[in-house]
Amino acid sequence: TNLSVRFTKCYLKTNSTMQKYRCTICDWVYDPYVGDPEHNIPPGTPFEDLPEDWTCPLCLVGKEDFEPYEE
User: Fold this and answer.
1) What gap in Å lies between CA 58 and CA 24, rounded to an integer?
2) Confidence band (pLDDT; 50, 70, 90) for 5?
3) Considering the chain, what percentage of its residues have pLDDT values greater than 70?
4) How far is residue 32 CA from its own chain's centroid?
């Protein structure tokens, strides 16, 4: 419903775990506000909560090759 969407957006804005991460191999940036829809990762999923077998959509390396990213 509309109220739950507004709550989710408010929660995401105040959740400190919503850090972006950059692939150190190809520079692709994981944005938790967007998720990874092509791999069934919904918006609002923190990097820490990605499955252990998740890989970079561009170069296919694992989570260990990502670092925190600041714009």
Assistant:
1) 12
2) low
3) 76
4) 3
Give the alpha-carbon dihedral of 43, 46, 50, 54, to 10 degrees. 80
Burial bucket for residue 50 (CB in 10 Å: 0-12, 13-18, 19+): buried
Cα 67 from Cα 1, distance rounded (Å): 35
d(CA 56, CA 30): 8
Would you state the structure tokens that stand for residue 53, as one six-digit string? 């077998």
Average pLDDT on 8-19 reads 59
DSSP 62: B
Average pLDDT over residues 27-52: 97
64/71 Cα distance (integer angstroms):
20
